Amino acid sequence: MCHWAWSASHCCCCWTVRQVCYLGPIFGSVLTGGMGQVPAETEKLAMARLQREVSRCQSEGAMREKLILELEEERRLRLESEKRLREVTHDSELGRAQMVSLQQQFSR
Asked: Per the domain annotation, does 3 fall within a domain?
């Protein structure tokens, strides 16, 4: 007998609809029509699946957090680089304007 049911609940980290195993005397009897408990072996397998799923979600969450931090660092470096480029361009334009001014003074 299948003790799995689709649930509209979401995983804590990835917002996808998950298949949930209802264990225990109340939920188990609801799914089995009140005709007994979930077998111990089925419960162990369900718990192992649940533990793997939680572990996978935590791993995905950690990976997602690491990627976010890397992207933020890349953005910070890009903004610094763009700022430095603007400063160098401005300094270059000032130097060019001074050179043109000096050339005009000496040509008179």
From this structure: no
